[in-house]
Amino acid sequence: MAGGAAASAALAGCSGGGGEETETTETTTTGGEETETTETTTTEDSGSFDVTITQGQMPSGLDPHDHRETTTDIVVLHAYEGVLTRDAAGSIQTALGTNYERIDGENAVRFDLREDVTFHNGDELTPEDVAYSINRVVDEEVSFASPQSDQLAGVAGAEVIEGENAVKVNNSSLNPIVFSEFATYLDVMQQSWVEENDKAYIGQNMNGTGPFQLDSYTEDEEVVLTAYEDYWQEPAAVDTLTFRAASEASTRVNQLLQGETDLIVNVPPQEVQRVTNSDNARVAAAPSTRIIYNGMRYDVEPFDSVEFRQAMNYAIDLESIVQNVLGGFGAQTGQPTLPEFVGHNPDLDPYPYDPDQAEQLVEESGYAGAEIELNTPVGRYLKDLEIAQAVAGYIDELPNVTATVRQRDFGSLVDELLAGSIEARPPWFLIGWGEATFDGGLVMEALLASDGTLTTWQNEEFDALLEQAGNQSGEEREATLQEANAMAHEQCPWIFLNQQYSVYGVNDAIAWEARSDERIDAYAMSQQ
């Protein structure tokens, strides 16, 4: 009975059971007598294909323009779509747009839109909706100050092309990455629906054009979506899609192996073997576009010293952290831009482990005896707490610095980081940043430019390099971004940590492959 119960539980998350019993009556005549034979047969049906996904955190809300977390993106992107998108390999694909091109001397772009697309409330998509959605993100006077404005860096606004099912997007400059931006960001919302509802309602409801529509939302507990039958492409194979969260990795693994969920994020290295050896699940992994780092505020002691910030990088054994804490599911970094990104500088190596050099630099900084506290989320990133503890542990081993760790709720930490000013941010924190455009310029604009969304550093020379890159293309832009990476490496606004690998646990009954952009696309799922 125990084995039967376990098998049933393992399948419960993916398929509905049942079938139909059919009675067939056959009449035969033998020797002048009629005989009726009734045969009962059971016809199996495929049942309902239901999938549950468990992340480390629940979404912060359902407004696709009012957040900055991948955990929220993963949920809302099932209901909302953009004019462009990317396939699993990262290539740009059309979505609500059918054609895109540069116009007006290439400082503007045009998107032709798809016909016969409906929102989940049944209304048809219009070019006014697309233009409004773009303006809602880039112009705070349209609705609110969207934390995603820099994701469309260089976009000044949008307007409908009169008499056509098309939109014109105006750029403040050449904007060499405009199509890359729109392939990754900008979810289209219905203008009338947004304007008719208040901010709280929009944050708890959904009305997109995507393959799934909202069934129910219990804040901080569960989001349930169902397949949208009038989707402009083929309806999703998944009938019901449920999102839940568990901050503890061991809890997520147990839920997967017990059949309580079908896909989990951030399987820790020590649990990989258990998942791989199970009867009902497997591990799927891919290098991600996410960099994990420790931000250090340049305007507060002791982090206002370049020597002290450099010391923090020499103090940690990053190679050991990648191998022993992450089990090899990661790669060392020494600059803001990952190797797969435009602008990566191949001449820069990660900082070596050199505690003697770290101790000397601390003395030179004038901050010997400093006491510092590392703010870290728990369960948001692969082994985030353990990475933070290892970093603080190495630094605390220096004879002239004391370091401790403070565990933080991810939501409250993000609120502080998005507060709008450097002064509101913690002096020292662990955070991750995923950039699905594969563009180093956008990473540095958001995280290191003086007016960046999460910046902890201000440097006029660095800002000038980013501005210069914004008006260049091709090899010229690549060279300028490489110079900016070299400056960041030398100035150390961060403790450079690791490129995160996305490590998932997946129910064997589901056909699905991990993507490098961290998107969990349930529309691409099918039953095995």
Automatic annotation (TrEMBL):
It comes from the Archaea. Pfam families: SBP_bac_5. Residues 1-13, 25-44 have a biased composition (Low complexity). One of its GO terms (molecular function) is peptide transmembrane transporter activity. Keywords: Signal, Transport. Residues 1-67 are annotated as: Disordered. GO terms for biological process: peptide transport. InterPro entries: Peptide/Ni-bd (IPR030678), SBP_5 (IPR039424), SBP_5_dom (IPR000914). One of its GO terms (cellular component) is ATP-binding cassette (ABC) transporter complex. Residues 45-58 have a biased composition (Polar residues). Residues 94-451 form the Solute-binding protein family domain. The keyword Transport applies. PANTHER family: OLIGOPEPTIDE-BINDING PROTEIN APPA, PERIPLASMIC BINDING COMPONENT OF ABC TRANSPORTER. Belongs to the bacterial solute-binding protein 5 family. This is ABC-type dipeptide/oligopeptide/nickel transport system, substrate binding protein. It comes from Haloferax gibbonsii (strain ATCC 33959 / DSM 4427 / JCM 8863 / NBRC 102184 / NCIMB 2188 / Ma 2.38).
